[in-house]
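Consider this one:
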Amino acid sequence: MRMENLLDPNIRRNVLFFITGAGTAYLAYKVIKSGIAGCLQKQDTCSKGMAYNASRFPIRHDLKKKSGELTRLLSLLKQQPDSFTKGMLLHGITRCIYLVECEAKSCTDEDINLIGSLLNDEEKGIKIQALNALNAFATLELKQHKIQEFVPRVIELVTTIWDSDLHIAGLKMLNAAILEDHLFMLLRRGIPSFMEILQAKNNLAQLQVLKFLITLSQKEELLYDILNCQVFPDFLNLFSTQLPGNVLCHMLILVQCLNLGINNPQYQSVSWEYNEESLYEALFGQDSRLPSKLLSLILHPEENVQRQVCQVIFCLEQSKSDDNISELQTSSSST
């Protein structure tokens, strides 16, 4: 007995409906299971029928034409399914956004709000999947303005939940976002959390948070908060050959940006005070071991790291020379 004899026409249409949508295999399974529940004694025959039917409807993706798959997935998501199905749908939505750009561009603000609302889901995994979907939308210039609305919530998630996957997804979105002035207070409160992520051992999260801190370090309003942030005593161990080259390069770029910031005349016009365990003391304090750490990286096997180390050393030496010249000018004018 063939599969089509076991399923009525409505169920067969549902099977075709879901099978032709990539990423919804679980939903297809549920529909098929409901259709053959009364025919368990024919399992072997049914399995052959399923394989036969599936082979007749191969999954295809036409990147230039709208398949309707993204619309179907969003429609199913609106029905508030269980957590597992919700995660599967979000995964499929993310995949569709990347694969079928023309269809993703036609999504409405309501569709994006639906995904954004899942940042408040009780399940941490759903939050991460929602972040991935929003990240996919953020790659579309047409949707970037809408995505900005969720930046405050993403900052809150990244700085209050300790999970590497969430940090990576959230920071990717923050790195793609425009950091408007009204976010500075929220960012200022989150700097200690960003610094903790940097000092954790997840290299992917470290890379994303370094990119973000580099951006923040170029905001004059946040520079002091970054420099005065407390760090672990072994912070300089981050300048180690054990770290991946791309992470090391971004660490060095961060140092260079911070050094440029503290030598800005406007920043120097204020007499700043730093905590003993601050990032400033670790990097630029009198007892800092940063110079020796930099020297040990000059022979790093990756050329990009070598080049970046030399740039940082030159930048630091130039700053010292400028300080010495300023001191000489001050002393000569006083005499």
Q: What stands out?
A: Residues 222-324 form one domain. The chain has 20 helices and no strands.
